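subagent[fold] <- orchestrator: predict structure for attached chain, return tokens only, no commentary.
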Amino acid sequence: MLSGNEIIDGFTISKTTDRAVPARKRQVAVIGANENDCRLMRAVPLDLRCHFFTTDQLTHVTATHFDSIVLFHRGSAESLSSSLLFHCNVSRFIVVSDCTYEKSIVNALYSGAHHFFDINESRRLLQTRITAGLRPHAQDNPQIVEFYPFVFHVISRMVYRGKDKIDLSPREFELAYYLFSNTGRLILDTELLTGVWTLPSTMDTRRIDTAICRVRNKLGLQHESSEWSLIRLRGQGYRLVSQVGETSTNSPTVESVD
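subagent[fold] -> orchestrator:
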């Protein structure tokens, strides 16, 4: 059994860098890791506190607040990740798996996983991917962003128009937030596939058109009276543009919540 600086329902490892240390370390639950996986997580160059759990300690994970979850699994564990996503409200959920079945990967991402990485990649590449996946949430980033009239709650992945909550799935939220974060420019289909779904650019892009249709209808981006219009450039990608001049196009209102 591995040892760490502190044990809390599993192995706890404090990681520091030369950067200024924030007031509170980001708490990351690492599930199903073997000794090699643990060494991999120790090498992630971010200021994190990792808590290591076995798969039979999931009640501890769901009962404790974590900023992020990294789930390692060999073989099919789709139901495991779906169960965790249902019970845990985390800002970043990363699945590291040897599963290559496209349907299972897509289902995990649609259920709310932010990234799905191949566990058989080289140690260096996998470490780089995990670092990049956790980095946006290893710093003090805004939790509420407004693109009038929409307000995006980034951590809980909810979006409101005024006081009305718009019913988006986790993946639809990620797609909508990506579009609004890149207004005014052409976003290629392959960019959405790799940036939002974290899937290889060689996969079928038809799922993008289906998800775009749902987001467009739910946010009303096809209406002439809407403040925003989502334009399809066939064979290329999409462009989200403001229909009220320059208002909110490049200057979202940002609120950081402690």
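orchestrator: received. Logging for downstream: The chain has two domains: 6-137, 144-255. The chain has eight helices and 15 strands.
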